[in-house]
Design brief:
Length: about 300
């Protein structure tokens, strides 16, 4: 059974993801747009129709997610290279608000694709780089979603993503499956950090942010913001103790806009403490957070 505590679970089998796929190739002249449209449909159907867990999902529990692909190179008629931004959201209890659980830009979207091929799902073998990428991020989305509802509840899905990564690394020379590249944008290091016991505290921070903070906003906004501030202080300590972890950056990429909106109307004391803690957590963007202090 799922851990989304407020939903009534009927015994109805449904796929887990509710994806929206968008593929663009703005800088490539002469590309066949019908091929891109077919690829978009094939990816969306693959993510929508395959099951990535054994849990029961009702239709309204399906996880909304977005795969925004930008093709930047076309080495051949069947070779596509570019980037893929993956986002996932989950509802906030007691409201119509939805929050990002993942906002990750993968710089190594490199696949072979023909509109005549059928995307085949296999949990225990490597088929091709496109299905490996889709499987990896499907499990990652599930892991982050479950982690936001239960302490370390996403671990089984991170482990499934690890299996995908290991199979791809053993059977493919495509980038992103091994150490190297841009540390902050590496799917390898993101997963390594999520499974690394040295970074275990991050899972508790992620869980408390959602369940003790966001999900309590409908009861008492002021108290919930205090919980958020406590969680951010824990994140600052985590960042100081683990400066080489990619997880703080992943958290900020998903939550920075939300946090700015959250504290925009906060009392002066909470706003001041928020700006100070963000100076530790995200110093590069300190001026953005500091601008809140100028608002009346």
């Amino acid at each position: 059974m799922r851990t989304r505590l407020w939903f009534s679970l009927a015994l109805v089998w449904a796929q887990e993801l509710l994806p929206v796929v968008n593929i663009q190739a703005p800088g490539i002249q002469g590309i066949d747009r019908t091929v891109l449209q077919q690829m978009q449909r094939d990816i969306q159907q693959y993510l929508s129709n395959n099951r990535f867990s054994e849990d029961v999902f009702t239709p309204n529990e399906r996880i909304k997610c977005f795969f925004n692909i930008v093709i930047t190179a076309l080495p051949s008629a069947t070779r596509f290279e570019g980037t893929m931004q993956v986002q996932a959201i989950r509802p906030v209890y007691g409201s119509t608000y939805e929050t990002l659980t993942l906002n990750f830009n993968d710089p190594d979207f490199k696949i072979n694709y023909s509109p005549t091929q059928t995307l085949q799902f296999s949990e225990n073998s490597y088929v091709d780089n496109l299905t490996a990428l889709l499987n990896f991020y499907a499990y990652l989305i599930l892991g982050m979603d479950y982690d936001s509802f239960g302490l370390e509840a996403g671990m089984p899905y991170f482990q499934k993503a690890q299996q995908v990564l290991n199979l791809a690394a053993a059977n493919s020379s495509e980038p992103g499956w091994q150490p190297g590249g841009n540390f902050l944008r590496s799917r390898y290091w993101l997963l390594e950090n999520l499974l690394n016991s040295s970074y275990k505290e991050f899972h508790a921070i992620f869980y408390r942010y959602h369940r003790d903070g966001l999900d309590k906003m409908h009861q008492d906004v002021q108290a919930a913001r205090e919980k958020i501030l406590t969680t951010l202080a824990s994140l600052a300590a985590f960042q100081q103790n683990q400066p080489n972890s990619v997880l703080t950056r992943v958290f900020i990429d998903a939550k920075s806009t939300e946090l700015m909106q959250m504290f925009q109307k906060a009392p002066a004391d909470q706003k001041q403490r928020f700006v100070l803690v963000m100076k530790q957590v995200d110093p590069t963007n300190y001026s953005v957070y500091e601008s809140l202090l100028q608002e009346k």
